[in-house]
Backbone:
């Protein structure tokens, strides 16, 4: 079926799809912020982040604000393109 | 969680894009409070309360038409500007601390990109308005100052509503219309100020509190 070929397996999970949606419209989002937006527990989110990082879809920045560690995430160019393609796949499926 | 329907996925994407990119840490109660501050401050001037300091009562109308003793007019003008500035500063401080508190509870950094976008889009028209009002004061066009603050504030709200609560747009248009009416009926500026900044914020703050904060 047309459209299915554009879908990306990496975005099969709704958590990963949601995570990408957040990162597409924001620069450097913190772990805590993502967790709250997606309403998730720690362990759950971490594995999805790892999966996306393995695909080089997102990049990670670790820094310290005072004494507190702060981890933030940003989407890469590869991730952005993959996500756009995935969305056009979804659109084709809907518009049939 | 597995993929179900493409429609649901698109819905999820849209929802998260919107929620994550909008600044929604303004506290409704804080907005309501700033409305009260404006209401009290503006009524104070409009109804000429507490001006016995000058021993001569001067109404807002006399002030903007420059009808009266110059030194008394000057004193009242200074008082008016001081009160207005105090209200503005007190409101900004209240909003800042409640927003910090709210974002702290939700574990979100206050100074994220949606916050800076909101601030920028609000303050560009607002500061332009402020500078313009200084020129109005300089040319002694006192009657247009209050309407001008309403107009520029309205423009600021309309432009920042894209990055924050979309309802801010309605409040913006309200301020804009009030500002235009007040410009036509010169001398009624403060009265519209009471409606726009006072009652407008009280109603808006209450609405935000009921709709978003209670959840």
Residues:
């Amino acid at each position: 079926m047309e459209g299915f070929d554009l879908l990306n397996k990496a975005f099969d999970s709704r958590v990963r799809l949601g995570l990408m949606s957040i990162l597409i419209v924001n620069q450097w989002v913190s772990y805590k912020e993502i967790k709250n937006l997606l309403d998730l527990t720690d362990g759950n989110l971490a594995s999805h982040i790892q999966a996306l990082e393995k695909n080089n879809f997102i990049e990670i920045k670790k820094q310290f604000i005072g004494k507190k560690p702060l981890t933030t995430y940003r989407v890469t160019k590869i991730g952005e393109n993959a996500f756009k393609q995935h969305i056009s796949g979804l659109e084709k499926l809907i518009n049939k | 969680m597995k993929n179900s329907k493409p429609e649901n996925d698109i819905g999820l994407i849209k929802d998260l894009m919107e929620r994550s990119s909008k600044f929604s840490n303004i506290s409704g109660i804080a907005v309501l409070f700033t409305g009260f501050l404006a209401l009290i401050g503006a009524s104070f001037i409009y109804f000429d309360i507490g001006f016995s300091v000058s021993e001569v009562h001067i109404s807002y109308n006399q002030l903007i038409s420059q009808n009266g003793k110059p030194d008394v007019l000057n004193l009242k003008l200074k008082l008016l500007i001081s009160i207005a500035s105090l209200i503005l500063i007190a409101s900004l401080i209240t909003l800042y601390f409640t927003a910090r508190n709210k974002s702290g509870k939700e574990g979100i950094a206050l100074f994220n990109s949606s916050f800076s976008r909101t601030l920028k889009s609000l303050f560009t028209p607002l500061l332009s308005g402020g500078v313009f009002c200084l020129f109005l004061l300089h040319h002694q066009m006192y009657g247009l100052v209050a309407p001008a603050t309403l107009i520029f504030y309205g423009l600021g709200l309309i432009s920042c509503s894209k990055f924050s609560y979309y309802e801010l747009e309605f409040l913006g248009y309200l301020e804009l219309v009030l500002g235009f009416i007040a410009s036509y009926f010169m001398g009624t500026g403060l009265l519209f100020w009471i409606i726009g900044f006072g009652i407008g914020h009280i109603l808006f703050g209450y609405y935000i509190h009921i709709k978003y904060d209670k959840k």
In short: The mean pLDDT of chain B is 84. The two ends of chain B are 25 Å apart (CA to CA).
